[in-house]
Amino acid sequence: MPTSSTLQTKEPKVSYQRVFELLEAHHKWFQQSLPLIASENIPSQAVREAILSDFGNRYAEGWPGERVYAGCKYIDQVELLCKQLAEELFRVEFADVRPVSGVCANLVAYTTFTNPADTMMALPIPAGGHISMGKKEFGGTAGSVRGLNVEYFPFDTDMMDIDVDATKKRVEKLVAEGKKPALAMFGGSVLLFPQPVRELSDFFHELDAKVCFDAAHVAGLVAGGKFQDPIHEGADAMTCSTHKTLPGPQGGLIISHARYGEAIKKSTFPSNLSNHHLHHLAGKAVMFAEMMAFGREYVTQIVRNSKALAQAMHERGFKVMGEKRGFTESHQLVADITKYGDGRTIEKRLENSNIILNRNLLPYDIKAGRHFEAPGGIRMGVSELTRLGMSESEMVDIAELIARVVVKRESPEKVAADVAEFRKDYNRVKYAFDSTRDAYEYIRLR
Ligand code: DSN
């Protein structure tokens, strides 16, 4: 691995050139790889065009029609269109499309529904929670930025889900201790199955707490009707990012009921944002339109693919989590790989084989003495491969390629060559209005 000092040069033009060489090398590598990171996706060429536009160089603080800058007459129209598309896609009364990331959207929710020192229920990271829901002592956003006291939902590892009865008991105890929750934050980064929003919303509302669902990972599935629908199950708001199962540019989104619209608008601007990212706003609008046209078909195939990959890995000896419930109902699957090594080493061997996924903490890792640098699990997501047109039979081939590296310990170089060959037939983005370019084409403007 080069270090910044080996890359550094005194000649600006050489460094300038080097940046483009590295960008082109990255594109070429992804053309020949299996991208299985569950939080990533490949946007359409239309989204890529939108994010290259001049919108990315402008300022539009505030709300359409109420900006504090001139020059926004086209930006305002795109933002209103984007908002309307999001509301239709998710069948909700209110969307704020400005948050620049999933973490930012969560901060908007915390600002709207809590005050510093309030208690919030969330999952810990090993059970699938996200750093933005974390406690202060671990550097989590909720604790260290909003000053929330984070308490954990009890988690059932066999079911890979929040335990409803144990949650009620834990919350009753918190109430008795004077720590009544102000917010229940469902969702997270490992989300194999729908969570009990319907079962627990009334319980939290009776305590005067609000309910939010972080759908960063599963928002595309929610939009396409293939996962739970938190807002219609009792949640007050749903936050998400726009680039995981939603195949948009990197960014965030919060959706809710009309009654919270004004409060959310103020929490976004001025509380958590100055300018939002206007090129990404245009990209989000394009992606929402694509999802309205192709979303159902796309997410139906995603869930078929993740189930097929989980089953094929299970048949090759992997301990895939959630076996009792059919492994997964989302785009993700998680495998315990402790019988083959640690997560970091296996992630690296797979990367050297052009199979790109991430190591992941398992719910029982901390108790077993493992930590995030070398955890016991790997996590995979199939959204990007589905966008490239792959289906169940390709998932079986991919499970075999992974097993060759991890179980049979074949040389990564040999498998990498086979992966590159396998990828040759899948280089167009499906589920999009325009698909004439190679998915990973490096587009030069210089
Ligand atoms: N933690 C990232 C993930 O799930 O990959 C998202 O922020």
Write a short abstract of this structure:
The protein has 446 residues and is an alpha/beta fold.
Word description of this protein:
This protein is globular. The chain is an alpha/beta fold and 446 residues long. It has helices at residues 4-7, 12-31, 45-51, 73-90, 102-113, 141-144, 164-176, 197-206, 219-223, 261-272, 278-315, 343-352, 383-387, 392-406, 412-423; strands at 34-35, 94-96, 119-122, 149-152, 155-156, 161-162, 181-187, 210-214, 237-241, 252-256, 319-320, 332-336, 355-356, 358-360, 377-381. Helix 8 (197-206) links the parallel strand 7 and strand 8 (210-214). Strands 2-10-9-8-7-3-4 form a seven-stranded mixed beta sheet, sandwiched between helices. Strands 11-12-15-14 form a four-stranded antiparallel beta sheet. The chain has a two-stranded parallel ribbon with strand order 1-13. It starts with a helix and ends in a 23-residue tail after the last helix. The chain folds into two domains: 49-289, Type I PLP-dependent aspartate aminotransferase-like (Major domain) (Aspartate Aminotransferase, domain 2), CATH 3.40.640.10; 294-423, Aspartate Aminotransferase, domain 1, CATH 3.90.1150.10. The chain is 41% helix and 13% strand. The chain binds D-serine. D-serine binds next to loops. The site of D-serine has 3 residues, from loops.
Supply the CATH class of the largest domain: Alpha Beta
CATH T-level fold name of the largest domain: Aspartate Aminotransferase, domain 2
Through-space gap between termini: 28 Å
**How many domain regions?**
2
| Name of the CATH superfamily of the largest domain | Type I PLP-dependent aspartate aminotransferase-like (Major domain)
Beta strand %: 5-15%
CATH architecture of the largest domain: 3-Layer(aba) Sandwich
Total E-strand runs? 15
Oligomer: single chain
Largest sheet: 7 strands, mixed
Strand numbers in spatial order across the main sheet: 2-10-9-8-7-3-4
Order of helices and strands: HHEHHEHEHEEEHEHEHEEHHEEHEEEHHH
Structural class: alpha/beta
Spell out which ligands are present: D-serine
The low-confidence runs, each spanning 5 or more residues with pLDDT under 50, are none
Overall pLDDT metric: 97
Tally of individual helices = 15
**Rg estimate, integer Å:** 22 Å
Q: What proportion of the residues is helical, as a percent range?
A: 40-55%
Q: Shape, please?
A: globular
